[in-house]
Amino acid sequence: MALARHINFFELQKACALPGCPLCRIVADRQRRYIDNMLFEHVSDRGFRAEYRAAGGFCSAHAQNLESFRDGLAVAILSRDILDDRLQSFKTRKPWNPKGRCPVCVERDHIEEEYLSFLAESGGDGPEETEFREAFTASEGLCAPHYGRLLVTVKDKPRRVPQWLVDFHQSRFEALLERAGQFIELSAYGRQDEFNHLPAADKIVWKELAVTLRGGV
Ligand SMILES: [Zn+2]
Ligand SMILES: [Zn+2]
Taking a C-beta distance cutoff of 8 angstroms, is the pair 15, 26 a contact? Predict the structure, then answer.
């Protein structure tokens, strides 16, 4: 397949050169663009406004930076609908239970699906696949949530998760497990000297562990 002609190829390759899970980085960028785009161009779009309202607004993770967006009017228009609905539920003492899903969460699921499917197709041994594999294995690899999702997403389809991806992540997670064990062991009383001789990255392996399990940039 023409892997290199795929737009995802370049985006992933670029993200692989930066720290952290490449997919988390792409998702963060695209989510930001999505919110920006929705606030600037689609706030008057009835479909989007209805979807936003049905969801009770963005989820708290995606609403986090709403007050820092440039377009106050867009935020005000969207938020007024939500406050109106909340006020109704306060008056009637009914629990607040929006039926829709946060539109950014929906968009994020699509983005992840798109890139995970792309990764699942990177198993060949042509020059493009080799180039991609080299870039990817030089990165920190997928976080645990994204790797878990890759295995689940691709499992039931005729294609399989390419073996190089399995081997790469398996050995990364195993190495991390071992380094975490060593960190815990050498944190014990009387082992300060050995702890001091650990490589710098191993002295703060708990941070790497937390980010790997959570994902995010
Ligand atoms: Zn990730
Ligand atoms: Zn969300």
Answer: yes
